[in-house]
Amino acid sequence: xxxxxxxxxxxxxxxxxxxxxxxxxxxxxxxxxxxxxxxxxxxxxxxxxxxxxxxxxxxxxxxxxxxxxxxxxxxxxxxxxxxxxxxxxxxxxxxxxxxxxxxxxxxxxxxxxxxxxxxxxxxxxxxxxxxxxxxxxxxxxxxxxxxxxxxxx
Amino acid sequence: xxxxxxxxxxxxxxxxxxxxxxxxxxxxxxxxxxxxxxxxxxxxxxxxxxxxxxxxxxxxxxxxxxxxxxxxxxxxxxxxxxxxxxxxxxxxxxxxxxxxxxxxxxxxxxxxxxxxxxxxxxxxxxxxxxxxxxxxxxxxxxxxxxxxxxxxxxxxxxxxxxxxxxxxxxxxxxxxxxxxxxxxxxxxxxxxxxxxxxxxxxxxxxxxxxxxxxxxxxxxxxxxxxxxxxxxxxxxxxxxxxxxxxxxxxxxxxxxxxxxxxxxxxxxxxxxxxxxxxxxxxxxxxxxxxxxxxxxxxxxxxxxxxxxxxxxxxxxxxxxxxxxxxxxxxxxxxxxxxxxxxxxxxxxxxxxxxxxxxxxxxxxxxxxxxxxxxxxxxxxxxxxxxxxxxxxxxxxxxxxxxxxxxxxxxxxxxxxxxxxxxxxxxxxxxxxxxxxxxxxxxxxxxxxxxxxxxxxxxxxxxxxxxxxxxxxxxxxxxxxxxxxxxxxxxxxxxxx
Amino acid sequence: xxxxxxxxxxxxxxxxxxxxxxxxxxxxxxxxxxxxxxxxxxxxxxxxxxxxxxxxxxxxxxxxxxxxxxxxxxxxxxxxxxxxxxxxxxxxxxxxxxxxxxxxxxxxxxxxxxxxxxxxxxxxxxxxxxxxxxxxxxxxxxxxxxxxxxxxxxxxxxxxxxxxxxxxxxxxxxxxxxxxxxxxxxxxxxxxxxxxxxxxxxxxxxxxxxxxxxxxxxxxxxxxxxxxxxxxxxxxxxxxxxxxxxxxxxxxxxxxxxxxxxxxxxxxxxxxxxxxxxxxxxxxxxxxxxxxxxxxxxxxxxxxxxxxxxxxxxxxxxxxxxxxx
Lengths: 153, 496, 325
Description:
The structure holds three protein chains of three kinds.
Chain A (H helix, E strand, L loop, with lengths): L4 E3 L3 H18 L14 H20 L2 E3 L4 H24 L1 H15 L5 H22 L8 E2 L2 E2 L1
Antiparallel strand pairs in A: 1-2, 3-4
Helix pairs in contact in A: 1-2, 3-4, 4-5
Chain B lengths: L1 H10 L2 H19 L5 H13 L3 H18 L1 H7 L11 H9 L3 H35 L3 H18 L4 H16 L1 E2 L6 E2 L5 H4 L4 H18 L19 H22 L6 H15 L11 H17 L1 H7 L5 H12 L8 H4 L1 H29 L7 H20 L2 H19 L5 H23 L10 H32 L1
Antiparallel strand pairs in B: 1-2
Helix pairs in contact in B: 1-18, 2-4, 2-18, 3-4, 3-16, 4-7, 4-14, 4-16, 4-18, 5-6, 5-7, 6-7, 6-14, 7-12, 7-14, 7-15, 7-18, 8-9, 8-13, 8-21, 8-22, 9-21, 11-19, 11-20, 12-13, 12-14, 13-14, 19-20
Chain C lengths: L1 H27 L8 E5 L6 H17 L3 E5 L6 H8 L7 E5 L19 E16 L8 H9 L4 E5 L5 H13 L5 E5 L3 H10 L4 E5 L4 H5 L4 E5 L24 E9 L4 H15 L2 H10 L3 E4 L1 H22 L4
């Protein structure tokens, strides 16, 4: 299943170094602790940042193999899924759980190539109702509600 | 031993006995859903226990506690997403087993190991709690630091691939753990003025994202609606020969899990990882740990269930909650008019021994429910990818939202998913990141407090118990580096 | 096709259940509360805020006649949960638990949240802070501790961090008795870590709510030296107050409820009356009896005034202690 290993991208190690440097910079601005002998709140992020910079440099030299990034239809599916999930969480509290879940499931299934009208007509609605019952009614997880015609679902 | 007789007597009440399967079923449902934890489930039913007789309420809560701890393994095996943090180590070998068409076997193993670990833990708790509680008290701040360092050294052996990549993942985990109010001074850090970030990154959204969401992204790369991908689930039985080979792992992992669980604040997630690491160390270099080794599943599950019982040692014997679930139990005990403490075994024997027997009963009940249920929930695997993974994403979103009811946590889940996906692509292991997130704050807090307690001197590192644990951690690090080098050389020779 | 059939059947069941719920909601839409009320707790499940609030909420489901949903948003001394409630609709359906910290965090520069962002509903429990030691060391009273400190000994005190109410009470006590430098604040992540530290002797003195250590006190594993309240409390009748020992310090953990500022007055009143009924219910009284918490009711207006006074008091106190930003 894994795609053919590719050698030598410098991108991941560079990102690691960048992140470590950013962490070091951000840790500079942390208020010092007020207890005597406390190494301070900045201690851990400083150590982690320094470690990231050091390890990133080492990996930059080592040039480890990695799997290829997805292309074409694969990339579309992955990026599309991320985008749809983002849209889902953005609409979750605005539209309420039932409406946004229904929209998400429908779009996600279409994205993955489901074309059967029967499946698209029943599955998203049925799954939305089922998960709503499971979480909201049975487990009383407070999910955001949808208002349809003045009624609260 | 008259306590046992009293416990047995009060348990012969139908209203108490009926709570065992109810609690276990509730626990299994809550534990199997990533994002819903045993703590939330128990807290939800706590007010309900106010109206019940004390033992009945306790048995209900303990059923949830035990059921949820086992059920975390189900999604860990089936969709690479631990249902509760305790089952994080179960994904390491459970999911590879399922991918190789041995899902049925992996589920059976996790059930049997959970029940065995739970029963061993219950026995240790019932017979040694007062003695062990005193032992647990001898673990002060410096010892906690040493234990956390020991847990961090697992990173070197668990990563697979190149050790430095495991360390990068760990450093990233420490950075994530730094976000929010710091554990000693209480100052916000790395929050960039955001009130959401100042609350810190919650473990459950991170866990659900880095496992469930990331796996969904990986699987959806190739999901095509027209192709029906029927994955093998394999048989449900485990051979007699395996049973014998798995026994030492079960016993050892249970002991490790119970021992770590006794320390307040050290949970089943850490116990599971430590036991997994020891099983790997003793398993011999040839055992395919990380690629579907049954002993990996057994070690993780036996340890986290035993750890759950270990957490009850300080709860029952000292009145100090060993973990957040135990805090809810403690609340139930207090409300039942029972003051937990060293004398509890004498003042309310029927309640204590009744609970122990109830717990053992809950595990037997879990065995029955589990054996019946495995054939049901394994069907998850048979759902075509194009339906299964959108449902998994839906559950990841709801699970992340359920923790604190904020969409910020859902965003964290999604970003963790993207991070996990990219890390897998670049061949960085994700387990070290998770270990660092869980253990990092314990190491930091106890290191800083040791410095404050000893007025800036490093002498505390030389205290006997602390120094021994740290020496063991160092030896463990050297050992895995040495084994790693050996394996790398073998692989090079194979390539030639 | 069997899966599809099952899906359709499940869908029908689900939809009919949903319709039933909505019909019920539409009828009741006129009165308040007609929808579920959400209480956001700023501390983890199982803690004292959580247990106290859940006990009250269980009774209030009856008296308010609606479902009450509890959410835990732990983090930042309760600030995260307060921020959530502050930013939610001021319609009375989202309630915050008000921790003691609400009077302190803005003075310490940890958040801009104050009591002014909220409209108080009621206070239901006030748990005074107590000072505890193990039976071994030679301290029989707080005076002994102060004398030892004056004699040059370093006294290690377990608290929940320098910004916690426990720490403020103990710093106040140290300042009052003139031993500030000798009492060292050792911060722990909550009582679950601080109590074992006190039992094992890692620290010399423990500051916590009396109700958190009733068990240990009953077993004589911990000895109470004083409580920081105006009068002695029911669960520790033999323990003198700090004032009785000549130390003019009070402090405690406050458990109350509040809604976002701007909530209509009639809704605040409705909440107050149904939660007060819950406070006076048999089931909550039974809880109080068993758990050892100290019930202390204040109505909406009184609690508002109390929070304003506390805000003032903490401001001055933190200034004097050098903890203000």
